[in-house]
Design brief:
Strand content: 5-15%
Order of helices and strands: HHHHEEHH
Distance between the termini: 26 Å
CATH architecture: Orthogonal Bundle
InterPro entries: HTH_MarR-typ, MarR/SlyA-like, WH-like_DNA-bd_sf, WH_DNA-bd_sf
Number of strands: 2
CATH class: Mainly Alpha
Largest sheet: 2 strands, antiparallel
Number of helices: 6
CATH topology: Arc Repressor Mutant, subunit A
GO molecular function: DNA binding; DNA-binding transcription factor activity
Radius of gyration: 17 Å
Protein name: DNA-binding MarR family transcriptional regulator
GO biological process, one term: response to stress
Structural class: mainly alpha
CATH superfamily: Winged helix-like DNA-binding domain superfamily/Winged helix DNA-binding domain
Strand order of the largest sheet: 1-2
Keywords: DNA-binding
């Protein structure tokens, strides 16, 4: 019998793959989308904070953020007195792309959950509780 932990791991991988497909029409991968979401939720965040929140190495986060900046989606300004650290924020184009991509991904998953007769609000609460418990360790 497959454990719940394994089933959840497979679900997350399938969701990431599914999201990549939905996001392709918006010119994003799931990792780029997640990075835009993090920068939006934490204006002024640093590259290190993005790396920590995405689970990427700092060099990988640096390359990703540079690519998003080259695409005009993220602005990378210097932090006052922060040496080489950069404060990140979404550009207008980044906010627009994130909004469109969020609607595509969120709506699609919400529709699927609803079509399966699953209480989305209850599932969201349970997932949040589980995630919080794992984070608190």
């Amino acid at each position: 019998m497959v454990s719940l932990a394994h089933q959840l791991h497979l679900l997350v991988r399938r969701m990431d793959h599914y999201a990549d497909g939905l996001l392709a029409e918006h010119g994003l991968t799931y990792r780029r989308f997640l990075t835009l979401l993090i920068v939006d939720e934490h204006p002024g965040a640093t590259q290190r904070a993005v790396a920590e929140r995405t689970g990427a190495s700092e060099p990988a986060a640096s390359r990703l953020l540079r690519s998003l900046a080259e695409d005009g989606l993220v602005a990378m300004g210097r932090t006052p007195g922060g040496g080489n650290r950069r404060a990140l924020q979404l550009t207008g184009a980044g906010r627009e792309r994130l909004a469109a991509a969020s609607a595509a991904v969120g709506g699609s998953f919400d529709d699927l959950v609803s079509a399966l007769g699953i209480d989305g609000a209850a599932l969201s609460r349970d997932v949040t509780r589980l995630s919080d418990a794992l984070r608190e360790g």
